[in-house]
Design goal:
three-stranded antiparallel sheet; mainly beta; Immunoglobulin-like; single chain; 75 residues; 44% strand
Length: 75
């Protein structure tokens, strides 16, 4: 990603019952005041900087179990 741009990281999770989906950064916190997660579980990162680079993990959890996927952001 280009510094200063907006990045969208998708996470598709379905089930019955619908799983709870959470995003976190593997080493550190999501950028304070510069992120949001929409209804489709997409993580939006605004005005990215080099400190936002790293691994982001989407975790889906329900009564049936837990699944996780990791994506890497390079700025």
């Amino acid at each position: 990603a280009v510094a200063g741009s907006t990045v969208e990281l998708g996470c598709s999770a379905r089930g019955d019952p619908a799983p709870q989906v959470q995003w976190h950064k593997e080493r550190g916190d999501l950028p304070w005041g510069r992120h949001e997660v929409d209804r489709e579980h997409t993580l939006h990162l605004y005005a990215v900087t080099s400190s936002d680079a790293g691994a982001y993990v989407c975790t889906a959890q329900s009564q049936l179990g837990t699944a996780a996927a990791t994506t890497f952001l390079h700025v």
